[in-house]
Amino acid sequence: MKEQAQWEWSDATGPRGNLREAVALFDTEEDMQAAVDDLESHGFSNAAISRPVAPSEVASAIKQPVFSVADLEDDARVPREPVDDNNSRTAITMVCVLTPIYLLMLAGAAFAAGHGMQTWQAIVVIVGLGAIGMIGAGYFVSRIVSERRSRIRAEKALGGLLLWVRTGSREQEGRALEILRRHAGRDVHLHGPALQH
Length: 197
Prior knowledge:
The protein has helices spanning 29-41, 55-62, 86-114, 119-157, 170-182, and strands spanning 20-26, 49-52, 80-82, 161-167, 186-191. The protein is of the alpha+beta class. Residues 1-16 have low confidence and may be disordered.
């Protein structure tokens, strides 16, 4: 993936290679999402905003336990992932719910047509399979939501929700810092090599 290299750091060149970043911790997911939305509305690409992977994955990657998210703020070894915003999560949820329902209802219609069922029998089969698809999709979505909530709780227990924002100019640095602070960001700072102009 083209952006993947921008989510990885190199110990030789510093955080995010030679790129500057604004860093912040948030106490709530709502504050963090509000900051992300504000950043995107002020010209920051979603690809410029990243988060650490789940704490257990971070611990495995850096080969030591994570006692505080604050310790990860400027650690070049921490693997990252892009921020999934509310719109993308909603779209994914809809796909997860509707796809199995549609496929099972389609299979039910094909089965009914292939076996010459009467209309009421076909309706029973189609609706029944659709209901099974709905139950399965609901379980799958509930698992995703539960895992996300568990992850957020784990990060909060370790000190907060960590967010990085790639910047490319002094203007962007100032804008990013201001937005992060506006939405209750804590320990807001910059890291990376200082700009020369």
